[in-house]
Amino acid sequence: MKLYDYVLSGNCFKVRLFLKFLDVTCDLEPVDFFPGCEHKSPTFLQVNPLGQLPVLEDGNLRLYDSQAILIYLARKYDSSGQWYPVNDPETLGRVAQWTAFADGITATSSAARLHDVLGYNLDIKAARAGAQTLFRVLEDHLAHQEFNDQHWLAGSQPTIADIACFPYTALAGDGGIETFIFPAIERWLCRFSMLPGFHNMPGMNYFT
Amino acid sequence: MTMPTHLDPFTHAQWYALGRDEDFPDGRKTQTRLLSQDLTVLRRGRTIEVTLPQGQPRPTQHRYGHVWTTFSDTPRALYDIPEFEEVERRLITAGAVHVRCSGLRAVENFLDMAHFPFVHTGILGVEEHAEVEKYDVSMDVERDEIWATNCMFFQPVAAATAKAGGTTKYKYRLPHPYSVILYKTCPPRPGEWDLIGLFIQPTEEDVCIVHSFVLVFDQDNTDTELLHFQQNIFLQDRIILENQIPRRLPLDMRLEIPTRADASSIAFRRWLKANGVTWSTVRAGDME
Ligand SMILES: N[C@@H](CCC(=O)N[C@@H](CS)C(=O)NCC(=O)O)C(=O)O
Ligand SMILES: [Fe+2]
Fold first, then answer.
1. Which domain holds residue B32?
2. Is residue B79, in this structure, part of any structural domain at all?
3. Nearest 10 degrees: Cα torsion A169, B127, B105, B174
4. A3 phi/psi in degrees, rounded to 5
5. Which ligand is located closest to the Cα atom of residue A48?
6. Cα–Cα distance for residue pair B237/B130, rounded to 1 Å
7. Which segments within chain B are labelled E, that is strand?
8. What is the residue with the minimal CA distance to atom 14 of ligand 1?
């Protein structure tokens, strides 16, 4: 199995972290996302026509979209069914909803980080405002979950939805977005960082 | 040209890196900042033009994979790095990383080995070997630069080429207030040094852009593997840098208690003071 990877990408990190949780090994194919912009090169566009990371290859399968990759890995390697609970329709529905939500966090919080850290030229105000809107929704949901003794996005167990939403929420500060005003988010990030096998990526400093 | 308040002559007299040669594509204007002033960079064919807002041109030079400019008409010469002439070395430029702190803070953090076990845990240090051994600090009077030598540190993965943990030897060179170069044991070639350095572009007194490079003997790793190694390390530093208070560098040692490990940073602050540097430092009467 091979992962096209960039060390500073939160979407690549979620795949690397899940592989670690599952104790599955995978080769990494490092891509010069910055400063080389290799993901937009003709060669890489053959791998992923969207010009995005991550991409996973396993035998004849080639998958892009980190959420799709998490689903594939969960179904293939998690025999417990905890991370992607296919036999529980309600939970599964919530997993799908929060997994989709992750892409909005990428589009806003990750964009703000690319602007602030790597100097990307984009509408920083819109990116931060968009992230804040999503974090307010996430905050309300997590506070509500806690009230019902459910400590994770889709229920009482962590799922791929938590993995999907974690990186660019944890890295919001890199993009100049404060998360201390969202206490339920902060508590959820902290719980997540205590999952066995968790490690930081640059920009995170959870106690491990 | 009018100088921003607090811009001291020594800071004003330096050459500064604005980016890698390939960051300025032909015919496209790039806006950037240096010492709180706007600059435009434009490549036309093989020449690079750097201009101030009213169109006044500034001199440029291409060195060490980067484009450099200065605001001074009598600049302090850009230092030599003879290792760039050695043909077997590979140069990897890691691109421009923006950091919300004084560029002087970024230099100082780079000098500080004590942070390795806590910030680069499992790579450049481990918590069980957190002790910084005594090392030497000297001044090269002729070139007006500082060297820290005979530095030793236990590292689990000193470089992308390292196969096992071991004690790494280091030297640090400070030839410029906004440049720092480290020399470290080269795992595949005992007796040689690998270079890693920062060319910092101070955009504001409390914001900088860090251009970094790796200049190594390495036949095992691809350029992209070396790039990822370097970016991973530097982005670990970045959160530490962004959390420093105040964001500008205090030159008055009474403000931050030095320990033995800080010998090189004490020398750096003294050297800045001796050269009259005030830009990007904490000044008397500041309430940050
Ligand atoms: N839905 C995709 C989004 C991937 C994505 O945005 N990846 C970033 C790197 S973290 C990227 O490649 N961006 C380049 C681009 O979108 O042009 C996923 O979750 O994998
Ligand atoms: Fe560091």
1. 13-69
2. no
3. -140
4. -115, 120
5. 1
6. 17
7. 16-20, 29-34, 37-44, 47-51, 57-58, 60-63, 66-69, 90-99, 136-140, 145-155, 166-176, 179-185, 193-204, 207-216, 249-250, 281-282
8. A52
Residue B5 domain-assigned (yes or no):
no
Say whether B93 sits in a helix, a strand or coil.
Answer: strand
Distance of CA B181 to the CA centre of its chain: 7
**Nearest-ligand number for the alpha carbon of A9:** 1
Q: What is the ipTM of this complex?
A: 0.96
Do B149 and B224 have their domain in common? yes
Q: Tens-of-pLDDT digits for all 288 residues of chain B?
A: 555 677 999 999 999 999 999 999 999 999 999 999 999 999 998 899 999 999 999 999 999 999 999 999 999 999 999 999 999 999 999 999 999 999 999 999 999 988 999 899 888 888 888 888 899 999 999 999 999 999 998 888 877 777 778 888 999 999 999 999 999 988 888 889 999 999 999 999 999 999 999 999 998 899 999 999 999 999 999 999 999 999 999 998 776 666 666 899 999 999 999 999 999 999 877 754
Angle between helices B103-111 and B223-242 (to 10 degrees): 110
Sign of CA dihedral A177, B97, A168, B31: positive
Measured from the Cβ of residue B10, the count of other Cβ atoms closer than 10 Å reads: 18
Q: Mind telling me how many Å the CA of B237 is from chain A's nearest CA?
A: 8
Mutate to test the pocket of ligand 1, among A53, A55, A56 (most ligand atoms within 8 A of CB): A53
CB B67 within 8 A of CB B96: no
Which pTM was predicted? 0.95
Q: How far apart are CA A74 and CA A84, in angstroms?
A: 6
CATH level 3 topology of A2-77: Glutaredoxin (3.40.30)
